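From the methods appendix. Each design record in this collection lists the tokenized structure first, followed by the designed amino acid sequence. Records were kept in a plain field format so they could be parsed without special tools. The example shown here is representative of the layout used throughout.

RECORD:
FOLD TOKENS (406 positions):
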């Protein structure tokens, strides 16, 4: 029997949270992202605003020109985070096989749950109803034998939709859709496929596997499977990692202090981001250095209080770095940073002072956008010197969400 995978995604999430709180905003073109005279971009547009062509990523000024009657709201990330937690709690009630993907999106394995709800469709209806009753939000749900088709189904069903793709119907659902609908196909792949005369997912599925492998390597195989509606990936519960680390070897050994510092900061942010993805805090920070003659040293520091902020990881690592370099005159070949002794965040949030809390929220906001648009979508002040070293992601997005300005 085919698996039953559900993809649940909230409709116009940020705006819907605002509308649930303030009924006067309901049924109107609303934009979250900032005031029209601000420099940022639209984070979320209500479906009423989308009718005027407004969409996420559009500069606020452009949005205003296309729809001056829209209500522009700056938004509040902590509020959305709270709504997200309540949303995930409802899903976790429905199935223990839950994989949160972003703030407003998750996969859930519902295989075998028919006996509990009558049908998987009914299970989805119940989930949608609870989200509406308890949060005042609309969710769209796709059900299919795998993640890719479930995600496309929820997307096609929006807003307030529910689309179940029966076993064996995956391929015919995907066939007429444009390539861009298939997860993993970015602008570059799309252009290449177009040049081969391929414009729909159906055409992609009929392309010989060898041709795809020739152009895309191993990714071509995955592309072929997805285009055929086949996706065996399991639902992955956030796992408990033991340690997380990142390191980088320079093209040429270096003594350039600002470069070393910026690289350490970049690596700290990568480690911090993964740490938070695993919902863990770290007690130990370890710095690793390899010098020109290949001598490798590690230095470790135990934090007084477990933390998951980029800043705590970087500050500790940078302290260790300064101490290590004060005894060493060689150029650096490799720099790395890691965290270990990971713990679940305690219920210490209330005790944290406001600025620490703000830092955590900021880190999470950045994670969210990086997850969606690639790590380099956002450059923080600390990693800015690396801007030219690490290229921007495929889509070239640099996004702005409320509370992101430093
Ligand atoms: P999405 O689920 O992509 O979009 P959405 O929920 O606003 O609309 P829908 O799912 O109905 O198409 O993203 C969820 C939230 O993430 C969104 O409400 C705001 C935030 N976000 C940004 O901050 N910037 C962006 O460019 C995008 C796409 C989303
Ligand atoms: Mg959404």
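DESIGN:
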């Amino acid at each position: 029997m085919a698996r039953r995978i559900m993809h649940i995604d909230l409709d116009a999430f940020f705006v819907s949270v605002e509308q649930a709180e303030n009924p006067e905003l309901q049924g109107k073109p609303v934009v979250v992202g900032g005031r029209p005279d601000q420099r940022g971009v639209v984070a979320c547009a209500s479906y009423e605003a989308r009718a005027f062509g407004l969409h996420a990523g559009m500069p606020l000024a452009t949005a205003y020109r296309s729809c001056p009657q829209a209500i522009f709201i700056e938004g509040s990330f902590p509020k959305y985070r709270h709504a997200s937690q309540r949303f995930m709690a409802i899903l976790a009630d429905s199935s223990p096989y839950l994989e949160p993907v972003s703030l407003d999106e998750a996969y859930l394995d519902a295989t075998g749950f028919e006996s509990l709800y009558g049908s998987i469709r009914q299970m989805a209806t119940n989930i949608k109803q609870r989200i509406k009753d308890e949060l005042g939000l609309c969710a769209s749900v796709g059900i299919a034998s795998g993640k890719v088709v479930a995600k496309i189904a929820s997307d096609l069903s929006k807003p307030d939709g529910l689309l179940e793709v029966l076993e064996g119907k995956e391929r015919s659902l995907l066939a007429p859709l444009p390539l861009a609908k298939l997860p993993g196909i970015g602008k570059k792949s799309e252009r290449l496929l177009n040049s081969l005369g391929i414009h729909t997912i159906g055409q992609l599925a009929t392309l010989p596997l060898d041709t795809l492998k020739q152009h895309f390597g191993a990714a071509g195989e995955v592309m072929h499977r997805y285009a055929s509606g086949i996706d065996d990936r399991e639902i992955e519960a956030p796992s408990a990692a033991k340690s997380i680390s990142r390191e980088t070897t320079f093209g040429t050994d270096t003594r350039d202090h600002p470069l070393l510092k910026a690289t350490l900061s970049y690596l700290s942010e990568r480690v911090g981001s993964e740490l938070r993805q695993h919902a863990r805090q770290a007690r130990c920070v370890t710095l690793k250095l390899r010098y020109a003659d290949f001598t490798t040293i590690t230095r470790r520091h135990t934090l007084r209080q477990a933390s998951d902020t980029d800043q705590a990881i970087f500050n500790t690592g940078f302290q260790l770095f300064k101490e290590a370099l004060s005894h060493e005159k060689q150029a650096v070949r490799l720099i790395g940073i890691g965290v270990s002794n990971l713990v679940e965040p305690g219920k210490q949030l209330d005790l944290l002072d406001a600025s620490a809390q703000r830092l955590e929220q900021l880190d999470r906001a950045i994670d969210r956008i990086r997850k969606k648009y690639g790590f380099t979508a956002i450059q923080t002040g600390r990693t800015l010197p690396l801007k030219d070293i690490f290229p921007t992601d495929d889509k070239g997005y640099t996004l702005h969400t409320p509370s992101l300005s430093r």
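APPENDIX NOTE: The pocket of magnesium ion (ligand 2) is lined by residues 9-10, 13, 104 (CB under 6 Å).
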